[in-house]
Each structure stands twice: as structure tokens, then as C-alpha cells.
């Protein structure tokens, strides 16, 4: 399989290609629409889409993929993930395999839910918590330490949507930053997480089959004072002008080369079975970015070997929890409760 890198900056593309060796080619495209035209013209075997915000960019790229061209993205925005999964019948009809959530976001927590549920599907309640951390190596094709437009757009899109959870099998509104909890990680450190409308919410619902599902992340401010401001921020970001300004401001911020708080990223799932039994499991990975790169590469190689099947899937639903292991993750299961992070939404363990 001959890799071809497509992006806006020819210089950064060449720098990245130089780190890959072999016969990696580069093709410059000044916009997502221009990149989509290249895809339609060259009909690659597999497209790996990494340019967020996926709520805006995934649609044109998917539509440009001709019959027989498979697609992988790294989306973790709730609306982007559900939109792609809604293309299942179309993908079957055109012989394409569409895969979303091929990264730490979505796959990590989904894999723990699938591992815990197994033959006990469906569950009564599911809560997932994502704790992504740094550890990524410097990248000559990167954004020079800045957040960058793609990630900034994804973050702002998530905040603008406002809170969501599943109750009674229905997706309902929730206060952004609600469902906050304190987790004691298996390494002994403690973090706080809060609810967010990520693709992990939809993936956890499908993986566990539960009518009540909460998805939380350590990336959401969990302090009481900041959480009180989040709903107002969501309202402000619904204004296109303010939203674009926030994206530009966030894109220009510099971040440290390595994230703080330890070398591992963690994903937790807490599952209540139909008989009331509560179980918990964890997935430990290295840096979230490195894990994401490994997942995307593994999925792309498997699709190139025709190991997928037509339709629209999350990476975990297509290849199962072992995909997370193949990408370097390790499951920690069978222990007692590791602390905190209740169900959220005001429901006790015994409520239906």
C-alpha cells in the first residue's frame, strides 16, 4: 500500500513524508473541497481523514469517496459520529466500509464497555470517563506547539452543542459540564471529569445497549465555578461570529509538547447489569495522540487487507476490543471500585 499525504502546506507535507521513509507521496490541496476532488479523481483504496472539525469536514470527504473506497476518521464530536453511522445503508449499497472514532476518543471507552458487557448485553446503566494525557513525540509536520485550527474547531463545536446524555433510551439535553465526578485512577492519581456531548456517548450506548448512558471527560472543566459558566458559553458559541472568533483564538494558543499528569491515558467504563450488579473496567494507553495514530494506522491497514465489511461502524464495533490492544492499550478488569464518578443525572444505582 503506497501512502499519499494530502494537506494545505506542501512544506509540512514533505517534512512529514521524510519521517515516514519509503515512497510516500504528497499532494497539496488548499481546502477540504479540493482534497475531496483529488479523492474522487484518484479513487484510493483507503482514506484516513484527520482534519477537524469533523462536523464540517467529514461530509464532503465521505461523499467524494467512490464505490469501493473505504474511509476512516478520528471524529469524537457527537454529531459527526452519529451522522456517519447514519450512512450505514448507503455504505452497504456502495460496497464501502466507513469507520469513525478511530482514536483514543471513542475507541478507548467503547472497548471497555464491550469487554465488560460481553454476553451480559444489554446493560441497565453505563457511564464512561475519558482521561487523555500527553506524551506525544514532536512532529516536524505539526502545528509548532499551537492547538491548530482543526482541533480548535472540534473543541468549540463540542462546547457549542451543549450537554447531552441518554435517559430512557432517548438522547436528551443536559447541562454542559454536569455529571461531574472524581476518579481515582489505577495509578493512584486523582482526576475530575464532567459530562460532554462526545461521540463516546453514542458508542457507549450502542456497545452497552443501556437506556441510561453518560459520557464524561477530563478535558471538560470540572470545577464548580467554571462549570457554572459553561452553559452560558454554549449559548454564546451558537452565534457564528463568536464561534469563529473563539476558534481563531483557541487555534493560536500554544500547548506544551507533553501533557501533564502522568505518562498514561485512561478510559473507564462503569456498567450496571440488568440484575443490578455493578462492574468497572479500565483501559490504559500511552499518550492519547500516539494511541490515536496507532489506531488509525491499524484500521487503515486492516481495511486495505479487506478485513472490514461494508457499512458504517465505529472502530470498536467493527474490530472489537482487541483493536485497542493491537494499538498498544492494556485492559485492567476484575478489580473493585476504583472510586468516584457516579452515574450522573441524579439517578441512584437502583433506579431503572
Task: Please give a structural write-up.
The protein has 352 residues and is an alpha/beta fold. Among the domains are: 30 residues, no CATH class; 170 residues, Dihydrodipicolinate Reductase, domain 2 (2-Layer Sandwich). Helix content is 39%, strand content 22%. It has a 7-stranded mixed beta sheet. It has a 4-stranded parallel beta sheet with strand order 3-4-5-14, with helices on both faces. The chain has a two-stranded parallel ribbon with strand order 1-2. Helix 6 runs parallel beside helix 8, helix 7 crosses helix 9 and helix 7 packs across helix 10. The longest helix is centred in the last third of the chain and has 17 residues. The termini are far apart. The C terminus is likely disordered.
What would the keywords be for this entry?
352 residues; alpha/beta; Dihydrodipicolinate Reductase, domain 2; 7-stranded mixed beta sheet; 4-stranded parallel beta sheet; 15 strands; globular; disordered C terminus
Summarize the structure in short.
With 352 residues, the protein is an alpha/beta fold. The protein is 39% helix and 22% strand.
- Distance between the first and last residues' Cα: 50 Å
The whole-number mean of residue pLDDT values reads 85
Total helix count? 13
Which architecture of the domain at 117-286 would the CATH scheme give at its second level? 2-Layer Sandwich
Class from secondary-structure proportions:
alpha/beta
Q: Oligomeric status of the shown chains?
A: single chain
Number-wise, the strands total 15
Largest sheet: 7 strands, mixed
Following the backbone from N to C, one meets helices and strands in this order, namely EHEHEHEHHEHEHEEEEHEHHEEHEHHE
Based on CA inertia axes, which overall geometry fits?
Answer: globular
**Parts with pLDDT < 50 across at least 5 consecutive residues:** 136-144, 256-260, 335-340, 346-352
Q: What percentage of the residues does DSSP assign to strands (E)?
A: 15-25%
Estimate the helix proportion, in percent: 25-40%
CATH class of the domain at 117-286: Alpha Beta
What Rg is obtained from the alpha carbons, in whole angstroms? 20 Å
CATH superfamily of the domain at 117-286, by name, is Dihydrodipicolinate Reductase, domain 2
Task: Write out the strand line-up for the largest beta sheet, numbering strands in chain order.
Answer: 9-10-11-6-12-13-15
